[in-house]
Design goal:
The chain is built from 18 helices and no strands. Helix 8 runs antiparallel to helix 14. It is mostly helical. It has a single domain, classed as Amino acid/polyamine transporter I (Up-down Bundle).
Amino acid sequence: MSDNPRSSIHGQWSSRWVFVLAATGSAVGLGNIWKFPYIAGENGGGAFVLVYLLCIVVVGLPVMIAEIMLGRRGRQSPINTMKVLSREEGRSPLWQLLGWLGVLAGFLILSYYSVIAGWAINYVVEMASGTFSGTSAGQVQTVFDELLADPLKLTMWHTLFIIATMVVVARGVRGGLEKAVMFLMPALFVILIILLAYAMNNGAFMEGLAFLFTPDFSAITGKGVLIAMGHAFFTLSLGMGAIMIYGSYMRSQDSIARTAIMIVVADTMVALVAGMAIFPIVFANGLEPGAGPGLVFQTLPLAFGQMSGGLFFGTLFFILLCFAAWSSSISLIEPAVTWLVENRNIKRVTASIVCGVATWGLGMGTVLSFNLWAEVKLFDMTFFDLLDFLTANIMLPLGGLLIAIFAGWAMSHKSKENEMATRHVFAFNGWNFLLRYVTPLAVMVVFLQSTGLLAKMTG
């Protein structure tokens, strides 16, 4: 048991299982269900999955354990946690910039994440109303293009999603976050299993499995390894303050390492099951598994529109996407809300409204980047592309690298032992070794690749 006497002013999870659901909800998002299948499809399937799993163990898990540990030890918003811990460890006060980096990254990500989630809400309506029934590829493409070209419709769904997110966050840890994940996560798992059963009966299931789990190492490239490492990192919600703030609500008696392993396993299983549900449908309809970002919004509606029972299960699939996005979005804005409550002495409801309005306003830049501002570019990127690049390729790897360095090197061995409260010395030393030497090196590779792209872009 941790000897940490601090407690969070924001509340505490009622049990370890609730924390596992909440952190898994933060980790399970559009990245698992929208992004993982298409990047696996683009990078050779089975071999990519193996590399991805290795990256999860070497990069993702050590950083997640470290981020939870920092959160529970500080018991405040990421900014104030890093301020307290750096002072406690006799380190530079500049370490609180790590907290600022996480809060800002979460805020920026939610601003465009909300717009993409709005696409999923729109597709629930389109699928349920029979828009895709018996349509051709061209007609499906037209529906998607018309959605992106309509700023009013995009704004409507973006606004609805932000409101849904802030309603949960405004209600606090027990009344909002906990109740939401207790409903959303079981519902998400049930829908995923139903879709998997559907794929087993209506898709080319064995072909899909073979694609996903038979490694073809000739298909793996250096770029593919970097994509796997990057995605392993981002899919776990690391480096954006979300896991740190959720860790601050964790009970002192709960094992950080065991809890982190459960979260990583659950998140990875969702990604794999999503692939097992999607690829059989793709192959059964003679579609392209490497269809890129359009796999979910352009390829799958075509498949569901042709299959018996496809409209019902297609609707269910996009509801799943909405739930996954919602469970992630509440964790993205929580760090900013808690900082306002702690530092500006305002009520949580007020802080939620302030953050919600600010996020909504910034999100309008993403809405317009698909239509009215499509030709407005900086470094040859639209507003949305720039935000996505800045957060995914620079801010999150940098945040993860700094977490590994602070927990691995700046924090004393005694502080880590006290907070981890582990009886397994070998496992603790193994984690500490990974955190100090292997993980920073791996994250640096991702980061240098990203800044290499930046150098090319600006050159």
